[in-house]
Design a protein that fits this description.
By secondary structure, this protein is mainly alpha-helical. The chain has a domain at 29-83. Helices cover 70% and strands 0% of the residues. It has helices at residues 16-25, 29-51, 57-86. It is elongated and about 55 Å long.
């Protein structure tokens, strides 16, 4: 039985462990910035969802922002993985 290699599983890019592994294997400032923005948006969403109603425009805006950041993180991780696949082994 073969162990799954992260480089062969780009669809796992939404997992925090996978994001951390890629950040360690290939440090990337843009990815780090996106992850910080993602964490801030998640915190704001958690806080606002308690204070505001489900249809509140500010809450909906934060949800939309978080979805966009999630997409950007996924795209960035896919790009980093592609670069890692193309690098020759040491």
């Amino acid at each position: 039985m073969q162990a799954s290699c992260p480089l062969q599983s780009p669809h796992q890019s939404n997992s925090a462990g996978f994001q951390k592994a890629v950040s360690t294997a290939s440090p990337d400032q843009q990815l780090q910035t996106l992850l910080e923005q993602q964490a801030a948006a998640e915190q704001k969403l958690a806080s606002d969802s308690i204070k505001l109603g489900a249809e509140n425009p500010e809450l909906l805006s934060t949800k939309s922002l978080l979805e966009r950041i999630d997409h950007q993180v996924s795209d960035r991780l896919d790009g980093i993985l592609e670069d890692l696949r193309l690098e020759p082994p040491l």
